[in-house]
UniProtKB/TrEMBL annotation:
The keyword Nucleus does not apply. It comes from the Bacteria. GO terms for molecular function: aspartic-type endopeptidase activity; methyltransferase activity. Keywords: Membrane, Methyltransferase, Transferase, Transmembrane, Transmembrane helix. GO terms for cellular component: plasma membrane. The keyword Ligase does not apply. Residues 36-134 form the Prepilin type IV endopeptidase peptidase domain. This is Leader peptidase (Prepilin peptidase) / N-methyltransferase. InterPro entries: Prepilin_IV_endopep_pep, Prepilin_peptidase/N-MTase. Gene3D superfamilies: 1.20.120.1220.
Length: 159
C-alpha cells in the first residue's frame, strides 16, 4: 500500500504545485474568479487528457456550469461566446472527426463562456499554438487539444 501511495504521490504533488502556481499568479494579478476555477479544473483536465486522451463529462460539465454562473452579470454575452467558440470547434469536429474529439468540443463550449467575444479568435490561435508545442515536445502527431484550450483560456482570462 505504501509503495502505491509513494508511486502516486509525485504526480499528485506536481499537479498540486502547478495549480498552486497558477492560483498565485492569478492572485498577484488580481484576476477574475474564472482564473481560479480554470486553474484547478485546467490542471486536472489537462493531466487526464494528456494521459488518457479523454475529457470526462464529470469535470467538463461542472466547469462549464461554474464559468457560466460566474458570468451571471453578462450572461447573454457569455452564452453567445460559448456558442461561437464551441460551434467553431463543432464544425472542425464534423468536417475532420479525426482531428478533434467530442470532449474538446464540449470543453470549448464551456470555456467560451469565460471569454469575451473579442478574445475568441486569439483563444483559438493560442490554443492551437499550445497544442502544436505539445506535439513537438512529445514528438507525436496525435496529441490532445484540451490542454491547449485550457491553457489559452486561463492565460486570456488571467493576463
Amino acid at each position: 500500500m505504501t509503495t502505491v501511495l509513494l508511486a502516486f504521490a509525485p504526480g499528485v504533488l506536481l499537479k498540486g504545485a502547478l495549480a498552486g502556481l497558477l492560483w498565485t499568479v492569478a492572485a498577484a494579478l488580481d484576476a477574475p474568479p474564472e482564473s481560479f476555477v480554470l486553474a484547478w479544473f485546467g490542471v486536472v483536465l489537462a493531466a487526464i487528457d494528456l494521459r488518457h486522451h479523454r475529457l470526462p463529462d464529470a469535470l467538463t460539465l461542472p466547469l462549464a456550469a461554474s464559468l457560466l454562473l460566474l458570468q451571471f452579470h453578462h450572461l447573454g454575452e457569455a452564452l453567445l461566446a460559448a456558442a461561437v467558440f464551441g460551434g467553431a470547434h463543432l464544425v472542425v469536429r464534423r468536417v475532420r472527426p479525426a482531428v478533434m474529439g467530442g470532449g474538446d468540443v464540449k470543453l470549448a463550449f464551456g470555456l467560451g463562456a469565460a471569454l469575451p467575444l473579442p478574445a475568441l479568435l486569439p483563444a483559438a490561435i493560442l490554443s492551437s499554438a499550445v497544442t502544436l508545442a505539445v506535439a513537438a515536445l512529445r514528438r507525436r502527431r496525435a496529441v490532445p487539444h484540451g490542454p491547449g484550450l485550457l491553457a489559452a483560456t486561463w492565460a486570456l482570462t488571467t493576463l
